[in-house]
Amino acid sequence: MNISLPKTISGWCMWLFFLCTGLGMFVGVLLTIAPWLALAYAVFAFIGM
Question: 20 to 30 Å CA-CA from 39: which of 10, 26, 30, 33?
Fold first, then answer.
């Protein structure tokens, strides 16, 4: 089984969003970063990056 890494900036933002959301249960500061990553994903996906 191979795990491939994201190839776009929007892919990285989405991956980091889910990581921060999941770990936010244990580290509260990560929950403040999650909305910014969601916004970054939307912008970069719209631009096509």
Answer: 26
